[in-house]
Amino acid sequence: MKNALGSVDTVLLLGGRSEIGLAIAGRLAREGARKIILASRPGPSPAPAFGGAEVHHLDFDAADPAGHGAVFDAAVKLAGDLDVVIAAFGVLGDQAAYEEDPQAAAESVGVNLAGHVSAGLHAARLLREQGHGTLVVLSSVAGVRVRRANFVYGAAKAGLDGFAQGLGDALHGSGARVMIVRPGFVRGRMTAGLPAAPMATTPDAVARAVAAGLRADAGVVWVPSKLRPVFAVMRLLPRAIWRRLPR
Amino acid sequence: MTFLTGWGRTAPTRATVARPRTVADLAAVLARAPGRGVAVRGLGRSYGDAAQNAGGLVLDCTHLRSWTLDEATGLVTAAGGVSLHDLMTGLLPRGWFVPVSPGTRHVTVGGAIAADVHGKNHHADSSFAAHVRSLTLVTADGRAVTLTPRDPLFWATAGGMGLTGVIAEATFACVPVESSWMRVDVERTGDLDETLAVMTATDDRYRYTVAWIDLLATGRHTGRSVLTRGDHARRADVPAGRDPLAFAPAARLKAPPWAPGGLLNPVTVRAFNEAWYRRAPQARRGLIQGVAPFFHPLDGVQGWNRMYGSRGFVQYQFVVPSGGEATLRRIVARLSSEGVVSFLTVLKRFGPGTPGPLSFPMPGWTLALDIPAGRPGLAALLRLCDRWVADAGGRVYLAKDSRLSAAALAEMYPRLDEWRALREQADPTGVFRSDLARRLDL
Ligand SMILES: Cc1cc2nc3c(=O)[nH]c(=O)nc-3n(C[C@H](O)[C@H](O)[C@H](O)COP(=O)(O)OP(=O)(O)OC[C@H]3O[C@@H](n4cnc5c(N)ncnc54)[C@H](O)[C@@H]3O)c2cc1C
Ligand SMILES: NC(=O)c1ccc[n+]([C@@H]2O[C@H](COP(=O)([O-])OP(=O)(O)OC[C@H]3O[C@@H](n4cnc5c(N)ncnc54)[C@H](OP(=O)(O)O)[C@@H]3O)[C@@H](O)[C@H]2O)c1
After folding, report:
1. Which of A83, A158, B6, B321 has its CA 20 to 30 A from that of B307?
2. Which of A86-90, B137-141, B290-294 has the lowest mean pLDDT?
């Protein structure tokens, strides 16, 4: 149960190797979470230090929606109520390559959007039954206004952001919530080799913002927070200018 | 479906609420208990999540309201939902008083037993359950069982936070009083050591005692206090012209509905504390006061808990055993130096506890304070205090708690497993559940 000061007991991380996701889970563990479940595709498991928390592993493939229900069932068996579900899986990919390989592009959207739709709806059903709990959705500023430079990824994030908003509205009054996280450029594995965008941030900064958002029952969290006013302006830029933005 | 919180208004969760009017209703509801279980609720005066049940059912027992007094023996038999307010209203004019009253009289008999509540007379009279002769518990299978202090389940229920079953009825001994008035002595102390010394030396002269601590005072004034101690006034003490057995608490002021988030903020709370200490006389003896202002000063302002704003507040109450004074000093000094401002910080000396494995009181010192939940760094500060309390062999009070960890609880209540075994016997399938139970792995 989330306590009066916003600490939680149990966390399910979908995308169990995600750098950002692990940073969030680690932070929640330091703030008192007792059970952390890392759900990822089979492979070498990270062994992060989660303080005294119990850590469990489950197999989870975002691209296999038919298997998602079983993942939640297994998570509940391990942890009881799920206080926080973090949906952190995603692939960035390469825009130029996607333009050459439409099938690969569609498959990435299968993970970045369809995978979240399936996992998100399963999570929502469970949290609604519990009468409490938060689904944390890793969206991105890339979906706030889609750019030429990564529009396959951006389109999926735009779809995901819209889905998460709708899901949050659907859960309104149920006791369960959706928290949308919109980071800008986060230095890390996913962005390795890319030149950092202005106002670049870190997985730890995202984790801090998410933990604060949980305490305050925030619906949307921008990281860094000044991206919110920046994007209020970005949204209004004329298309002719937006199109020419380098990245 | 309704959102419920405790008195601190933190961590709301949603549940279906059922309002049984009879024991038969109760059994019928339990027979249809949903998968997420059933929590029992009285008047919701516990501060945290003890009487809520996310996604499940909550049994609001406040409609179980009948009670009788046997004037020959002073035994009251009351349904679990009867409030101490109703009891006082009925008992005082007949010359009787409840054995124990917490700092609010708007609690139910069921809540008073489930939390094994204490009052200002703990050093003299122990806690509520010590006065209970028998109780009727409706268990998970819908059966009503009568328990006496000889039954282990009785003591798992006293302090058991509603997790063994529904207290449908209880019989307890009341106290004869000559008047409905209190004869009160007030004095100020200069620091914490003086407070402890005065209470240790002279508390036994009074049935009711409490110290209000000024957390704003630092340095050599740390822990300065206003001591309020009293007894039921004799009939001869009651000033002429006053009805000796009247009980008509003043109409309650309402906290304004617009009371903005944070009307009780550091500035106003500071001002209040300053005034409270200054206003108290250096020493005043033989003050004649009504029961309501003496026992329940906060009940005078209806809904005062709303004044902390939308994030709500946390009440932190712990006890350290006698001999743990160093820990008490350390915590008071730490809270004072961190500038924690609390509306009311109350210190009380406890006498012997009851045999309940989860009952809170033990001989020693208990301190209670309230802090806005939004205060930065609060979680870490209270975790540190938990550490000190546990190391001193003390514990935190579950009826007030909304943020303790399961690990700290297990350290503080060494008889937890004994309680779990009794609870398992009474409710093998875990029908009775609450958010508090989930949070603390009870
Ligand atoms: C201003 C204020 C001052 C207070 N001062 C004191 C004090 O001085 N000393 C003290 O000890 N406490 C004090 N309290 C706390 C209060 O006395 C307890 O929390 C008490 O349990 C509240 O009773 P309730 O009827 O409101 O129960 P609730 O808050 O509704 O429930 C409390 C617990 O009792 C259980 N419960 C309630 N009814 C039943 C029943 N019929 N059968 C089984 N379980 C039941 C619930 O499941 C829950 O676990 C104070 C509270 C306030 C708001
Ligand atoms: N990094 C940024 O700049 C940035 C900015 C904004 C938003 N985001 C979003 O934040 C989230 C986390 O990103 P990150 O920075 O932590 O990147 P990351 O470390 O690359 O994490 C992404 C994770 O998604 C997992 N994943 C990919 N496809 C999957 C599938 N089919 N099934 C299960 N898991 C799958 C990956 O698993 P494997 O380990 O098996 O590959 C990887 O662990 C992503 O949704 C990302 O889009 C990132």
Report:
1. A83
2. B290-294
CATH T-level assignment (fold) for domain A10-242: Rossmann fold (3.40.50)
What is the reported pLDDT for B257?
53
Whether omega before A224 lies within 30 degrees of 0, making that bond cis, reads: yes
Residue A146 is given by DSSP the state -
How many C-beta atoms surround the C-beta of residue A4 within 10 A? 28
In the predicted structure, residue A229 carries a pLDDT above the cut 60: yes
Q: How far apart are CA B195 and CA B207, in angstroms?
A: 17
pLDDT tens column, B401-437: 999 999 999 999 999 999 999 999 999 999 999 999 9
Name which residue sits closest to atom 34 of ligand 1, judged by CA: B111
Cβ-Cβ contacts under 8 Å, A129 against chain B:
36, 55
Placement of tokens 């027992």 in the chain: B61
Q: Are A85 and A123 in contact (CB under 8 A)?
A: yes
Select from B205, B167, B169, B164 the least CA-distant residue to B187.
Answer: B205
State the ipTM, two decimals: 0.91
> Which residue's alpha carbon is nearest to atom 11 within ligand 2?
A88
- What is the best residue among B7, B101, B107, B139 to mutate for testing ligand 1's pocket, by most ligand atoms within 8 Å of CB? B107
Residue-level pLDDT at A215 = 92
Q: Burial level of B279, CB count in 10 A (0-12/13-18/19+)?
A: exposed
Domain locations along chain A: 10-242
